[in-house]
Amino acid sequence: MMNEKFLFWENPKQAVWHTMLALLLIGCINIFSASYIRAEADGSSTFFYLTRYMAYSLLGLGAIFVVRKFNYRHLLSKNAIAFVYLSTLMMLLLVDFIGLESGGARRWLGIGGLTIQPSEFAKLAIIMLCSRYLGMHLKKGKAVSFLEGDGRMCLFATFVYAFLVYKQPDMGTAAIIGALMFCMYFVAGLPWKQVGTVFFGAAVLAVYLVNSASYRADRIKVWLNPWIDEMGDGYQMVQSLLSIGSGGWVGTRWGEGSSKFFYLPEAHTDFAFAVFCQENGFLGACLLMLVFIFLGCALLRIAVCAKDERGFLLAAGVSILIVGQAAANMAMVCGVLPVIGVPLVFISYGGSSLLITMVAIGLALSVYDDEVERAAREAITQPVDRRNDLRVVSRRWHP
Q1: DSSP per residue over 176-229, as a string?
Q2: How confident is the chain (399 residues) per 10-residue block, as mean pLDDT?
Q3: Could you tell me the residue ranges of all domains in the chain?
Q4: Predicted TM-score (pTM) of this structure
């Protein structure tokens, strides 16, 4: 049952809320510690990044309540999905014309005093598209395939989104969009033969893309051994590893980590986990990982208990989005993966990523609400059915 006890919590919904709020609290502390030096250097208030993080958090909490008011079935309807697909496509196209440029990449749109990153919206759009079309396919009792049925729409949308994001250029996020689509197909039951074909094709494509641009090839070389250019392309990874290693078991005192004093680039964004490790140590990092695991497991519990195929895929996709990106960022910061520009949601500063993640959690909680309501309706009718069954048995034994 959906509302049964889950680990230390009364139900998975409570687990989702508690772990999410814990991550938001940890994020507030880490964002302030990692960013106040940079904020002062930029001539802003020391609380500049913290206040913006809290503003996006409040927007996200509001979005969760709004999304839960709309049943996820309505949000996955034909018209709603068309709106999600087209609006995301429009934002990605607008980036080419009026996008904001930073660090040689054009990835953001400015709206008033806020900036949004359309590629983050594309991730959630892919999950919603796959949940609708693959869910409808499963509901009909048909096997999932890339080139058959409604699933072709998911493949087409993924290709379009990934291509537009790749042009920004942002190969890492484009790869994540493709990986999300593949994971949704895998969860839906993609045949193993096609799974192997995708892995082989992805490997060939990755090799081609890496070698098609010299800076990507250099990034791979630096990833394998950052000390070959520790003051150049390998500087960021070397500083990240030094920050993590200097944290030891329990870390420095909070706020006393040295990496944020302009030693570590992107200390408050993609590499915020390195600052967290330096100030909280190995034990703190393990605790943070455990919180993410609890959140992912709670979302998977919602997915497994959902009776509707679309709800199952939606909740599973949200779990993959959050835990998968968290694992990718931690691996990147620790040098296990090359630098791919993936934020650690809740812990890194990134308004679009935080907002979209909380909207995704709202969708998963909508699946929970729908399942609980369905179970309540069945519980009302169940006693009547049992009395009818008893009458039938009674008539059989007492004609």
Answers
A1: HHHHHHHHHHHHHT--HHHHHHHHHHHHHHHHHHHHTSHHHHHHHHHHH-GGGG
A2: 81 95 96 90 89 94 93 92 94 88 79 83 95 88 76 87 89 90 92 88 84 75 84 86 91 81 84 94 96 96 93 96 95 88 90 94 95 84 51 36
A3: 12-378
A4: 0.91
